[in-house]
Amino acid sequence: MARKSSLPVNATLVIAASLLAAGCKEEPAAGPGEVAGRPVLVQRVAFEDRVPARSFVGTIRPRIESDLGFRVQGKVEKRLVNVGDAVTAGQPLATLDVVDLRLQTEQAEAELSAATASLAQADADLKRTLTLAGQGWSAASTVDRQKAVAEEARGRLLRAERALLLARNAVSYAVLAADADGVVTAALVEPGQVVAPGQAAIRLARTAEKEAVIAIPESLVAQAREGEASVGLWSQPGVRYRATLRELAPAADAMTRTYLARFSLPQADASVQLGMTATVTLTGAKTERVVRVPLSALFNQGGGASVWTVDGEGALTLKPVTVAAYEAQDALVSGGLAEGERIVRLGVQKLDAAQRVRVVDALQF
User: Fold this and answer.
1) Scanning 5, 41, 113, 173, which has the fewest C-beta atoms within 10 Å of its C-beta?
2) Which residues contact 301 (CB under 8 A, 6 or more apart)?
3) What is the CATH architecture assignment of 66-96+174-205?
4) Threshold 0.90, pTM exceeds
5) What DSSP state is assigned to residue 299?
6) How far apart, in whole angstroms, are the C-alpha atoms of residue 35 and residue 198?
7) 4: Cα separation from own chain's centroid
8) Confidence of residue 27 (pLDDT cuts 50, 70, 90)
9) How far apart are CA 291 and CA 202, in angstroms?
10) pLDDT of residue 285
11) Residue with more model confidence, 240 or 286
């Protein structure tokens, strides 16, 4: 005996009608401006320099910063400047007690007087000896001995003159003066301190030439040498100064593994103060225009790299491209594309030129 269905006849008719209605239902039409088809993620082609500009933070430093010291030993009497003072060439910075130096000068003057008198006596004795020798009353050996005495006295006089000159110079060295226009960056002595010759007393930074100092990684050493540089100050947004590489360290720092680079600023004015924070921007001297695309956008079937481009109606076109370089996640394309074109970023191996696609811009994510 056949088993009867447990569903009522009315319920069966309702289910059948629902299935028939679902089968006859039409797909929703694409809205205005939309293209029906497979959705694809795209990006617009935007060319950029293959060697982009790189910026480094540095500081403004003087090209020449030297420690000035007294050339003679003595006790500091006065310090005439403080840290941060602007000074001009020849301006006194500090002085020594000159009592001992003046005594040495007086001693040198006395020795000069004695040497002068000794030479005069020796010359007079030589003249008398020569007169007696001409009359036959003096031996030749006596004449020679008297000539030697006169020459010795003349040498003693010359030595006394040089000693007096040195003593007078020592008195002038008691005043430490600036050797150029600059700014005092350190005062290393105080009044009452006894200093040795050459000991650092005042540190002076010359303001005639300024430079920006930065640390460069080894991968950009060549760009620093061959490229162009400009410097901007944090205190003056929008103002740029032309810079020239003056010095590049021959060896990397042992701790940071970077190279110290100094860029001179020939156009720096008074607004560029020492110690300011600066941004040094390096650009390649010769740059190639490339577009950066993800590796997933490349399609290669053995004939070279290509990319899928999408037009405004959702049509696909496979274009061969020239790849300048490959990076970890991107490829640098130098030819085959035009500015503003849209290329497919993902799923390129599943596309076909006969397909119509719906564009999803990468900027939406």
Assistant:
1) 5
2) none
3) Beta Barrel (2.40)
4) no
5) B
6) 84
7) 94
8) very low
9) 55
10) 61
11) 240
Q: Which two tokens stand for residue 186?
A: 């350190």
Q: Which two tokens stand for residue 232?
A: 């901007």
One-letter amino acid at 110 equals: A
Closest to 73 (Cα-Cα) out of 101, 40, 38, 104:
101
Residue 98 DSSP SS3: coil
The per-residue pLDDT for 271 is: 87
Q: Alpha-carbon dihedral of residues 6, 10, 14, 19, nearest 10 degrees?
A: 50
Q: What are phi and psi of 302, to 5 degrees?
A: 100, -10
Task: Look up tokens 């005062």; give the residue.
Answer: 187
Topology at the third CATH level for domain 54-62+207-283? Elongation Factor Tu (Ef-tu); domain 3 (2.40.30)
Per-residue DSSP letter, 304: -
**175, pLDDT greater than 90:** yes
SS3 220: helix
96, 76 Cβ separation under 8 angstroms: yes
Per-residue pLDDT band for 1 (boundaries 50, 70, 90) equals: very low
Q: Please provide residue 250's backbone torsions phi and psi, each rounded to the nearest 5 degrees.
A: -75, -15
Q: According to CATH, what is the number of the domain 38-50+288-364?
A: 2.40.420.20
